[in-house]
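Dear support,

I submitted the protein below through the web form. The confirmation email said the job was done, but the results page showed an empty box. After a refresh the structure appeared. I'm attaching both so you can tell me whether what I see now is the final result or a partial one.
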Amino acid sequence: MNVIWNSLGWFGEAGRWSGPDGIPARLLEHLWYSLLAFAITVAIALPLGLVLGHLRRGRAAAAAGFLVMSSANAARALPTLGLLILAVIMTSAGDLVPILVPLVALAIPPVLVNTYAGVQQVEAGLRDAAEGMGMTGRQVLARVELPVAMPLILLGLRTALIQIISTATIAAYVGLGGLGRYIVDGYSRQDYDSMAGGAILVIALAIVTQLAFAALYRAAVSPGVRPGAPRRTERPGTKRRARSAPPVRKETLP
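What the results page shows now:
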């Protein structure tokens, strides 16, 4: 309990909310790294998942499914810190590139897999009906498959962004800023209050992201495609009339 109270007192220390090492400055740096990595991830994984998920028949569809699952499993097995160190050694494009490489590699699998699975789960009857109305392949993808797949797509985006936010603390290992500075610098100085304060800030940012995606879900997903959406039912107090068989004509003998 004393550790918690001491970490909360860390937020009220002098100069904690101002200057280059203040919480607002470190928070903006953390958001910059996270949102930049998230934008690169969306630009790569979202269109690729939509296109591969749109394929339904033939060898191309089978190859697309194998490619998505294999690449996702391979990316999940990559050690984030090891990939960061390798990027630092191999790159010469500046300090920002090494941190973006592991963050993007970590975030691509949930976006790619969820987008692919969301488009693949669209019922074939909906797609056939849209094609029967004269829609092209792009129109079917944009107007039918994308809205139906939106719940799974948002789930993948939310998972990716939360993973990026929690992992962006490793930026401090290569001399960059962000909330990870409180954790890394606190560890080097044995300042456990600073480490706990940095961890609390990262957790709070992840919770805010979760709430933001919940609001986005309500705004972007049609109520008809949400999980557990109520089916069309009869009005209360009314009974559905059974369809009666047509009357049989009686033939009379002359």
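Response: this is the final, complete result; the empty box was a page-load delay. Residues 231-238, 250-254 have pLDDT under 50 and may be disordered.
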